[in-house]
Design a protein that fits this description.
Layout lengths: L5 H10 L6 H20 L32 H5 L5 E2 L2 E2 L7
Antiparallel strand pairs: 1-2
Amino acid sequence: MAKMTKDEVIEVAHLARLAITDEEAIHFAEQLEAITNAMELLNELDTENVEPTTHVLPMVNVMREDIAEEGLPRETVLKNVKEHEAGQVKVPTILE
């Protein structure tokens, strides 16, 4: 199975901009080796007749139907804004 070395862990940590000690690298190497060994066991499974899926549960669109509804009255909305002009919200200029 895959053997993870301390040096490989230190290299990956460097790429990820993580500061780890040598002791942590040894500990993570053992953990990563156990994880990759467990994943390699999945290669032994016969998946010949298994249909590809995007989700493990038979899900359908769970969103509500997109129906246009009347919004809030403009007067109600404009009551809550700091400044408005000609029925629109006035915001500070951010571009010159």
